[in-house]
Amino acid sequence: MFPARWWHSLEDGRIQCDLCPRDCKLGEGQRGSCFVRQNLASAMVLTTYGRSSGFCIDPIEKKPLNHFHPGSSVLSFGTAGCNLMCKFCQNWDISKSRDMDRLMDQASPEGIARSAEEWGCRSVAFTYNDPVVFAEYAMDVADACHERGIQTVAVTAGYIHAKPRREFYGKMDAANVDLKAFTEDFYFKLSVAHLQPVLDTLRYIRHETDTWLEITTLLIPGQNDSGEEIKAMTEWIAQELGPDVPLHFSAFHPDYKMMDTPATPKATLAKARAIALAAGLHYVYTGNVHDASGGSTYCPACKALLIARDWYEIGEYRLTADGHCPDCGARVPGHFEAFSGAFGNRRVPISVPHL
Questions:
Q1: What is the CB neighbour count within 10 angstroms for residue 223?
Q2: How far is residue 117's CA from residue 89's CA, in Å, rounded to a whole number?
Q3: Strands (E), the chain
Q4: In angstroms, rounded to a whole number, what is the distance separating the alpha carbons of residues 310 and 290?
Q5: How far is the CA of 274 from the CAs of 228, 231, 278, 281, 337, in angstroms?
Q6: Please, which pLDDT band fits residue 93 given cuts at 50, 70 and 90?
Q7: How many CB atoms lie within 10 A of CB 174?
Q8: Is the dihedral of CA 191, 193, 195, 198 positive or negative?
């Protein structure tokens, strides 16, 4: 058990977790809604520190991040638990797990950083379940990675309080934040959470950190895919975050507690992308469907094809090493470098030494 941060004692003998807006109040032995933060001997502990549900090498585009070292490989891992309760969770066997035996892989922060270096990974991603719930572990891994020149990525729902948010994103080089919808009704009914803290996190990352930001919205038929909602959301992004923040629309498939909801039609993603582009966003992508055009990067100034993607494969790469269009010279925001080939559409499970 690892001592956790961001909590305080209550007058009635319980303790309160101050990590996320759930503000769980815990008696002795009780666990929070995330199930991995627990009151033991009147102190908060993180039960999953140093333990993982598995390690894989992925293409960075799978996170998804399209403007953060395109074509590079990333060491990906998660633990267990989540501080949201999404009925449509597509990693529910990990994020909703209360079975600690799933966490078969153990690794120190130094072991993870060393493995990423040995495998030639440009970055390490905290993913599969939300890294907010294992923030102490993720931040220690980030420190170890930075000592070796390896960058770090948070794939998260952004549901976190202001103080831990400052400390957490101070360690992250990039983040893909899941903006699940643009209504409080959706967040409350389908995720048992609230929209405003996520919007606060997006504003904070964009305007008060150097963390590279991309956003993903999973479009669920009949729930968050109306033209009116997508228009409102994309106009908010353009106005509050700026037109250069990449937005990914991803297709839902029936899962967890929404098995009766149909998969998202490809046409819905295409329509959403068109609405977002009309709202002024420069980089809008589609995911979980085969759409080479929707997965590719174009120059917003001259419309030239800059990075051709087919699923996670890069077929053509025309950006200059410092991220400019070779045709008109316009700059494409992101983290780019000289392109020498791509990791490709692979997923390589690996073992990471514990020490």
A1: 21
A2: 31
A3: 2-3, 7-9, 15-17, 25-26, 37-40, 43-46, 51-52, 54-59, 73-78, 105-106, 123-126, 151-156, 174-178, 212-219, 247-251, 284-287, 297-298, 305-310, 313-317, 348-350
A4: 7
A5: 13, 10, 6, 10, 29
A6: low
A7: 26
A8: negative
> Under 8 Å CB-to-CB from 218, ≥6 apart: which residues?
88, 90, 178, 180, 250, 251, 252
**Phi, psi angles (nearest 5°) of residue 15:** -120, 155
Strands 174-178 and 212-219 come out as parallel
Question: What does the alpha-carbon distance between residue 179 and residue 288 come to, in Å, rounded to a whole number?
Answer: 16
Q: Do 279 and 272 meet the contact criterion of CB atoms below 8 Å apart?
A: no
What's the distance, CA 355 to chain centroid?
27
Long-range contacts of 307-310, Cβ-Cβ distance < 8 Å, separation of 24 or more: 307/66, 307/70, 309/61, 309/66
Mean pLDDT value of segment 73-88: 94
Hey, where are the domains in the chain? 2-46, 51-285+338-350
Contact 206, 199 (CB under 8 A): no
Residues facing 3 on adjacent strands:
45
Q: Which residues of 2-22 are buried (b: 16+ CB within 10 A; e: fewer)?
A: bebbbbeeeeeeebbbbbbeb
How many CB atoms are closer than 10 A to CB 79?
Answer: 30
For 306, the token pair is 């800059």
Answering whether pTM is above 0.85, one says: yes
| Residues 117-139: tens digit of each pLDDT | 999 999 999 999 999 999 999 99
Question: What is the CATH architecture of 51-285+338-350?
Answer: Alpha-Beta Barrel (3.20)
Predicted local distance difference test score (pLDDT) of residue 95: 56
- Return the axis-axis angle of helices 162-169 and 196-208, rounded to nearest 10°: 40
Contacting residues for 123 by C-beta, under 8 A, at least 6 apart: 60, 68, 69, 72, 74, 75, 116, 145, 150, 151, 152, 153, 173, 174
Contact 186, 180 (CB under 8 A): yes
pLDDT of residue 101: 46
By the 8 A CB rule, do 26 and 40 touch?
Answer: no
Could you tell me the CA-to-CA distances from 286 to 6, 60, 62, 127, 261 in Å, in that order? Answer: 37, 15, 12, 20, 20
